[in-house]
């Protein structure tokens, strides 16, 4: 058994994830918001629209955050709300978003 309890012959989740740290500067966060068409929209509606775009288009978000390309769609969907909320907040405040990928939590997202 490996660290998450799967048999060695099964590929574990941790074998498929690219570990790393990514920083999205405020300009990138603003570009995501503008591209999504939610600039000037109320925060809850903007978060909802960004979240649905993240869930639908893993390839597009993978161009911005390369490690997300290799992640399962279920994982991206799970963290889409947190990522969307962080992007909207960061764009509004002129801050960046830090994303740490790895163990023990798959994604840690924070606004800096």
From TrEMBL:
Look up and give the organism this protein is from. Answer: Herbinix luporum
Q: Specify the domain of life of the species encoding this protein.
A: Bacteria
Q: What is this protein called?
A: Uncharacterized protein
């Amino acid at each position: 058994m490996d660290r998450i309890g799967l048999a060695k012959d099964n590929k574990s989740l941790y074998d498929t994830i690219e570990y790393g740290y990514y920083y999205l500067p405020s300009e990138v966060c603003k570009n995501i918001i503008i591209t999504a068409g939610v600039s000037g929209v109320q925060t809850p509606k903007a978060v909802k629209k960004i979240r649905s775009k993240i869930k639908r288009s893993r390839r597009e978000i993978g161009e911005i955050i390369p490690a997300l390309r290799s992640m399962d769609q279920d994982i991206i969907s799970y963290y889409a709300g947190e990522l969307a909320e962080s992007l909207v907040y960061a764009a509004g405040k002129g801050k960046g978003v830090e994303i740490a990928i790895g163990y023990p939590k798959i994604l840690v997202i924070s606004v800096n």
